[in-house]
Amino acid sequence: MRFVIVTGMSGAGKSTTLKMLEDMGYFCVDNMPIPLMSKLTELLLLPGGEITKMALGLDIRSGQNIEELEQILNNMDEQGQEYEILFLEANDAALVKRYKETRRNHPLAGGGRVEKGIAEERRKIGFLKKRADYILDTSRLLTRELKSELNKIFIENKEYKNLYITVLSFGFKYGIPSDADLVFDVRFLPNPYYIDELRSQSGNDKEVRDYVMNNENAQIFLDKLTDMVEFLIPNYVVEGKHQLVIGIGCTGGKHRSVTLANELYEALRATGETYGLQKEHRDIEKDAVTKAK
Questions:
Q1: I want to staple 55 with a disulfide (CB 3.0 to 4.6 A). Which of 21, 33, 103, 277 is the partner?
Q2: Which of 110, 126, 154 is the last residue before a domain boundary?
Q3: HSE (CB half, 13 Å, CA atoms) of 192?
Q4: Which residues bind ATP (predicted)?
């Protein structure tokens, strides 16, 4: 029996995750009252059961006395029952945005501010995050990326490092990304914008990529950046960091930054490490939109 407890912050994607696990062959139960969990675990221990994979969704809505869950988990440890905890995390800005888009009230906010409810929830379920086997930060994850991460853990059974890396290109004239952990400026490289035939293209096009990377300084920068990031990643993992956003910026976020972001993404992917990895080009289309106005 593989028994997975899916928990985390309200609004971080628990319902979506349970649907994906159901598609993977898990028998899923959502929002079971905490006191009934002991009865469920007793049933799971019975030999000859037909259910071999179960996912149980629990969050703050499962009962105001969620602290009781810690004692239940301790009892399961004493009985030798194996279980895994998947904790879904998201930053406050992402959670607030999701609540506003769905026009739902946070379960702990009452009639007050969502931010207050989120802070209280973090305090109440902090013990679950500490006990978690897997922590997925869904702040920037697309649905397909969430499914990919779940496949790594629950289908491919890969060792998971609880770190999701976003390589993000941007344009300085549109502002530095507020959630970037590391920011690198590649405006020292020759700008394809001033080459007529390259101006309308982007760093996703081969011609622009070749123009940027054929510069010796671009290759030196990429090599040094890759070495530094590969050094930092295991240290971030040890320190418990779950989301790493690497921002690479140029003037407009269309040519140089896109090229280097793509190159860094490919270099990190080639390592074969089991952390999550995505790339995003925040401002690649903004130049055309601005000119159209």
A1: 21
A2: 154
A3: 29
A4: 8-15
Based on the domain organization, do 150 and 201 belong to the same domain? no
DSSP code string of 40-84: HHHHHHSTT-S--EEEEE--GGG-TTTTHHHHHHHHHHHHT---E
Could you tell me if 55 and 112 lie in one domain?
yes
Does the annotation list 247 as a binding residue? no
Is 8 annotated to bind ligand? yes
User: 38: annotated binding-site residue?
Assistant: no
Based on the fold, state whether residues 180 and 107 are members of the same structural domain. Answer: no
Ligand-binding annotation for 76, yes or no, is no
- 137 is known to lie in a ligand binding site: no
Please check if 178 is assigned to a binding site: no
Share of the chain above pLDDT 70, in %: 95
Kindly report which listed range (54-63, 160-169, 188-197) carries the lowest average pLDDT score: 54-63
261, pLDDT greater than 90? yes
Q: How many domains does the chain have?
A: 2
Ligand-binding annotation for 85, yes or no, is: no
The annotation status of 253 as a binding-site residue, yes or no, is no
* Mean pLDDT, the chain, integer: 88
Could you tell me if 121 and 13 lie in one domain? yes
Same domain, 95 and 16: yes
14 marked as part of a ligand binding site: yes
Q: Indicate whether 186 pLDDT > 80.
A: yes
The C-alpha angle with vertex 235 and arms to 232 and 240, in degrees rounded to 5, equals: 125
The region that residue 245 occupies, defined by phi over 0 for left and psi between -120 and 50 for alpha, beta otherwise, is beta
Is 11 annotated to bind ligand? yes
Q: Residue 257, annotated ligand binder?
A: no
The residue type of 44 is L
**Do 142 and 20 belong together in one domain?**
yes
88-146 tens-digit pLDDT: 999 998 998 998 887 778 877 777 788 888 998 999 899 999 999 999 999 988 899 89
**Cα 61-30-80 angle, rounded to 5 deg:** 100
